[in-house]
């Protein structure tokens, strides 16, 4: 049974991390009508039987994958069990479910922008602002509340969201100020961010090993990080 389980887990990871956005966009394409004609089927919207069938099938597909992706996000943290006790890959938090909801909302926003506000600079800037604020929020959330027991995952999530936040911020400024090339700003910003995060993390570790009082902990992450450092 190992191979089918591995394949199923692989498909679940693909859906959670990569496919849910395209699935959402493909499903809501059935609502894309202009002048009462579907732009791809070239039939009357909501009156032609072929469009009705595709619309119903798309909505069923959309609801199924939304529910399925939320369930995957809720249980994404559990990696197995030992002596009937659940084993987790990170501390208990809502990182995957928040990320999943955010991902779906960004794809829906992008779909609306592409199909109904194609030439709107204001809507494009709103989309860029949404991505920037979303990335900033996840940067702070991962720093304060998310802790994977595999330190490589901690580096990927924290640095990743920080880099994306800076990237989206520079792209937004590029459109606002009509700057032609922003490559230098991206690279310098990423270098500065890397040093800032490194020194913040280093200071945090020193604090946990010298001044931290476990009975005054503000979050589960501080307690678990303290335990990990002590064990190391």
Poorly predicted runs are none
- Helical stretch tally: 7
What's the β-strand tally? Answer: 4
Per the principal axes of the C-alpha atoms, what is the gross shape? flat
Rg to the nearest angstrom?
22 Å
**Helix/strand order:** HEEHEEHHHHH
First-last Cα distance = 36 Å
Mean pLDDT: 86
Q: What percentage of amino acids are in beta strands?
A: 5-15%
Helix content: over 70%
Oligomeric grouping of the chains: single chain
User: Strand order, biggest sheet?
Assistant: 1-2
Strand-pairing-aware structural class: mainly alpha
**For the report, how would you describe the main beta sheet?**
2 strands, antiparallel
How would you describe this protein?
The chain is mostly helical. Helices cover 72% and strands 6% of the residues. The chain has seven helices and four strands. It has helices at 2-28, 49-75, 95-116, 121-145, 151-177, 183-210, 220-231, and strands spanning 33-34, 37-38, 78-82, 85-88. The strands form two sheets. A two-stranded antiparallel sheet has the order 1-2. Strands 3-4 form a two-stranded antiparallel ribbon. Strand 3 and strand 4 form a beta hairpin. Helix 2 (49-75) packs antiparallel against helix 3 (95-116) and helix 5 (151-177) runs antiparallel to helix 6. It is flat, with a radius of gyration of 22 Å. The chain starts with a helix and ends with a helix.
């Amino acid at each position: 049974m190992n191979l089918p389980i591995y394949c199923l887990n692989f498909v679940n990871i693909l859906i959670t991390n990569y496919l849910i956005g395209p699935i959402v966009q493909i499903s809501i394409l059935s609502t894309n009508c202009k002048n009462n004609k579907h732009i791809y089927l070239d039939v009357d919207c909501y009156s032609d039987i072929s469009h009705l069938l595709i619309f119903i099938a798309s909505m069923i597909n959309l609801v199924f994958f939304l529910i399925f992706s939320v369930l995957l996000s809720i249980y994404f943290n559990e990696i197995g069990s030992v002596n009937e006790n659940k084993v987790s890959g990170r501390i208990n938090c809502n990182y995957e479910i928040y990320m999943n909801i955010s991902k779906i909302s960004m794809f829906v926003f992008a779909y609306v922008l592409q199909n109904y506000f194609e030439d709107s600079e204001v809507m494009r800037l709103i989309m860029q602002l949404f991505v920037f604020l979303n990335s900033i929020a996840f940067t702070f959330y991962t720093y304060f509340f998310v802790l994977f027991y595999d330190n490589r995952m901690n580096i990927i999530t924290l640095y990743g969201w920080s880099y994306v936040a800076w990237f989206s911020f520079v792209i937004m400024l590029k459109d606002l100020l009509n700057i032609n090339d922003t490559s230098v700003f991206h690279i310098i910003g990423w270098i500065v961010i890397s040093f800032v995060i490194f020194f913040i993390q280093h200071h945090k570790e020193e604090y946990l090993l010298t001044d931290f009082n476990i009975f005054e902990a503000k979050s589960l992450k501080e307690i678990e990080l303290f335990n990990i450092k002590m064990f190391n």
